[in-house]
Description:
This protein has about 325 residues and is an alpha/beta fold. The chain has 11 helices and 11 strands. It is about 35% helix and about 20% strand. The strands form 2 sheets. Strands 6-7-5-4-3-8-9-11-10 form a 9-stranded mixed sheet, sandwiched between helices.
Amino acid sequence: MSLLLDEIALAAARLAEAGVESPRAEAELIAAHVHGVRRTELHTVPDASFDARFWEGIGRRAAREPLQHITGRAYFRYLELEVGPGVFVPRPETEVMTGWAIDRLREMDVAEPVVVDLGTGSGAIALAIAQEVPRARAHAVEADPIARGWTEKNVARVASAAPYTRGRVTLHSADFTGAEFTGAEFTGADFTGADLTRSDLTGAHFARPGVAAPGALSELVGKADLVISNPPYIPLGATVPPEVGEYDPPAALWSGADGLDAIRAVERAARRLLRPGGMVAVEHGAPQGAAVYWVFCEEAGWRDTRNHKDLARRDRFVTATWPGERADG
């Protein structure tokens, strides 16, 4: 056995003592990151090239810093995303909902499906849709400027690797829980960059080539084929792992006494954004399936509301169809 693999075994024991759920796998991933190889190639790393940064990374993980912050990468469906402090790290559970959305969009008889991703964070959902659904146009909405910075990096990263996605992801600076989003009109100004458009509800106007008229975001009202969101849904006061409570941004976690405040905002926004026959998909916590189902009830105008399970067979997201005229309330 090589010295590196011996060190990985020792590191795995340390991570296990610290309460990390998959200690061996994470020790190997940190080693692969440090040495610039795939996890399956660790046996090829010469002993002489052992790097002390490995134990620095192990120390950070033992302190329960997220693995993705240590490597700077998160993997989501077919994407490799940049992540770090200030942005929510995308989870495998969200891949299941995104896969459902991609399947539905492919089935639609729409030439260029319009998708709105509320609370985009790293941009994972919007970028996966742009990558996997030909001609889809994804509008990624994010209020937090730090998270938007990560989204911009990932839009550029994906556009470089997959040029056909260029110009098909639009980043909007907006709070989807606010009155501006669920009122009669969107407000703001848009400007077009090389790979994305950004809009700012503060009303600041950015003079540059390709600038769109103020209020251009209002064109989405009643036009979206799909609204999708992984919103904050943890009830205030709930206990969460250190990787979540100490490192994920609070605005991406907490959502009122019952955890449903942001989901209710998704419902209000979706009613305004969706065309007749458009669909909504919203992620929630495992115990919240029944409660979220009733947020999208028939009395509110929704049809075909369904609960869906994640890979562990736990309730994870709800979908519904908006059948008729756009609501004004």
